[in-house]
Specification:
Elements: H1 2-22, H2 27-52, H3 60-73, H4 95-98, H5 100-123, H6 126-147
The chain binds heme C (HEC).
Length: about 150
């Protein structure tokens, strides 16, 4: 019985791994996907940045819309950093696969901070948005410093 359970566990674990991998036919597809998600996230994050820096007028509604996109996009890129996607047209550092736990924690930190950015934007308070923008930017930078080559 115990052996059967172990076998089933191994079966499902293998299934879970291949399904994450099977989302992308080729490594280059995964790389393209994650870069696209990061580009979209970066574009909408910069729009809040422009407001925070006073380059465009403050617009609470636009802040909410952009923050929601950032928070949603912040969930997407990470599944595309599977095994075998370390080479090609990518700036991903090998450290991602050497210290997966730290990379995952950095992704989770971004998700937490961008969630707070949505709440700050919904409050409509410029100061709160500025603070949350800078905390979220800190989460981007921390991961880029460790895991993205220049
Ligand atoms: C958990 C780590 C991590 C976090 C957090 C993170 N990034 Fe990145 N980012 C990366 C890595 C790794 C790459 C390189 C991806 C590649 O080239 O395959 C990258 C690349 C990018 C790119 C370039 C995409 C391209 O087309 O080459 C942009 C833009 C970007 N990130 C913006 C952001 C912004 C804005 C944030 C915060 C809101 C952020 N990132 C947070 C890891 C992260």
């Amino acid at each position: 019985m115990k052996k059967l359970i172990l076998m089933l566990c191994a079966f499902f674990a293998a299934g879970a791994m291949t399904s994450a991998h099977a989302q992308f036919a080729k490594a280059e597809d995964a790389i393209k996907y994650r870069k696209s998600a990061l580009t979209v996230m970066g574009t909408h994050f910069s729009r809040i940045g422009a407001m925070v820096q006073g380059k465009v007028p403050f617009d609470a509604k636009a802040a909410v819309e952009n923050a929601e996109i950032v928070a949603n996009m912040s969930k997407l890129p990470w599944v595309a950093f599977g095994e075998g996607t370390d080479a090609g047209d990518t700036k991903a550092k090998p450290e991602i696969w050497k210290d997966g736990a730290k990379f995952k924690a950095a992704a989770e930190k971004l998700q937490a901070e961008s969630g707070k950015l949505v709440l700050a934007a919904q409050s409509g308070k410029e100061d709160a948005i500025k603070a949350a923008f800078s905390a979220t930017g800190g989460a981007c930078k921390a991961c880029h410093d460790d895991f993205r080559s220049k």
